[in-house]
Amino acid sequence: MKRVQLAGYPAKHFGYAVNGKVATITLNRPDRKNPLTFESYGELRDLFREMVYATDVKAVVFTGDGGNFCSGGDVHEIIGPLVKMEMPELLEFTRMTGDLVKAMRACPQPIVAAIDGVCTGAGAMIACASDLRFATARSKLAFLFVRVGLAGADMGACTLLPRLIGLSRAADLLYTGRVVGGEEAERFGFYNRLVEPEKLLAEATAMAQSLADGPTFGHAMTKTMLWQEWNSGLGECIEAEAQAQAICMQTQDFERAYHAFVAKQKPVFEGN
Hints:
Blueprint lengths: L14 E5 L2 E6 L10 H14 L7 E6 L10 H8 L4 H20 L4 E5 L2 E3 L1 H8 L2 E4 L4 E3 L14 H9 L1 H10 L3 E2 H6 L5 E2 L5 H13 L3 H13 L5 H15 L3 H11 L10
Parallel strand pairs: 2-3, 3-4, 4-6, 5-7, 6-9
Antiparallel strand pairs: 1-2, 7-8
Helix pairs in contact: 1-3, 3-4, 5-6, 9-10
């Protein structure tokens, strides 16, 4: 079975560091508000695919440098070339961007997005694909696809966003491409919580660390079931969760938690 250590992953198109059991991914083109390129899309997709096999990383923080999260696809390096492409090349690109979202949802590690400033277009979809979203009141969320003449249906937006904030609100954002401030986004449930800018990364990292110190096998199962059950009926979901929980009950973490409870101690989870 393939097993990898990702502490030394040689990222070329974004910042990447592992501290303990938490990996931090930082989009680091602050002069352009951290846009994505063909290369960064592909490398991010490949990294999250490798996360499935990682033995050292148990949670991920996804953030941006310089007071912004991500401004989406780079206008000059992506949108410019796209208008010159034929359908086969266009479809190859749109499938690659969607593959990033699928890889983020398929990796077992919880992903905590730390969002400040601009979070638009593909950046907003990276936020959607994360498991938790910490943000600032000054953040600016927008699904800009319609404003460049495209459908709001991009990278899974029409399935992910309604499940996060409801169909009516999602329709508003996807049809209009309007900019939403942090307080409104937190109020309708897109953000889990708002944090002061100077505390944002620390609090997102603390949450990721807490998850990494928890029953990581159980967290991975929770993530799998949240994703799997979207398209299932209640009976199927209950049976799937019964099987998932029975599997988790065979872990040593479950036994550790029981013995710690009996001893009136805090359990120390090891992810097995």
